[in-house]
Design brief:
2 domains, Thiol Ester Dehydrase, Chain A, alpha+beta, 5 helices, two-stranded antiparallel sheet, globular
Length: 204
């Protein structure tokens, strides 16, 4: 219902409430990247990763999620299939190892740091047979000591990823112990260890 005031039409309380809600939703839609755009970014990142590390293309590894503190890599069982009908360990290891490393690459890029990322050592364990498509995820990453790295210093940190095939317990776990070497004079400063086509908006 509308009220007529001074020759104009004024929305009733319910109509005004709906109009306000619609306005808020429109503003949120404008400020939030469309789903298709986010998916396009992940597809482009996967294509570049495949070009730079061919093994990832063979294994069919692609990005399911890639956020500042969270990454999920998905891979089909087929390329890693062994004679027992389960995933061959090295294929799973590759996905599990990439997850924390790529999260670290993005973190360095976001901080405009040029670093060399070295894997000192790692631990990998398969807890149960992987009988289907799987996902490697890393949800935590220690904060980077940006000032130390900008001065050409060395930083050590540890990150863990999990490989899952369902909502149950992880099928495998991987823990990486990294050494980061700051490269203050590098011409690639700001691009991290791997020059993937990250959107500029991801720096915020």
């Amino acid at each position: 219902m509308h009220q007529v005031l001074g020759g104009g039409v004024v929305p009733s309380g319910d109509s005004a409430s709906r109009a306000g809600h619609d306005t808020v939703q429109e503003e949120l839609a404008v400020n939030r990247p469309p789903l298709e755009a986010r998916e396009d970014v992940l597809v482009r990142l996967a294509m570049e990763l495949h070009a730079r590390i061919p093994m990832t293309k063979f294994l069919g590894i692609h990005f399911e999620a890639f956020e500042p503190g969270r990454i999920v890599l998905a891979a089909p069982l087929g390329p890693s299939l062994n004679h027992r009908g389960t995933a061959f360990g090295p294929g799973v290891f590759t996905s599990a190892g990439l997850a924390p490393w790529l999260l670290l690459v993005r973190a360095a890029w976001a901080e405009r740091l040029a670093v060399q990322i070295l894997l000192r050592r790692c631990e990998f364990a398969i807890h149960r047979p992987i009988t289907g498509d799987y996902r490697a995820r890393c949800d935590t990453l220690p904060a980077l000591e940006a000032d130390t790295l900008r001065q050409g210093g060395k930083v050590r940190l540890t990150a863990t990823s999990q490989v899952c095939i369902d909502e149950g317990e992880p099928a495998a776990t991987y823990t990486a112990h990294f050494t980061l070497l700051g490269q203050p004079g590098s011409s690639g400063a700001g691009e991290g260890d791997l020059a993937l086509p990250f959107p500029e908006a991801w720096r915020t």
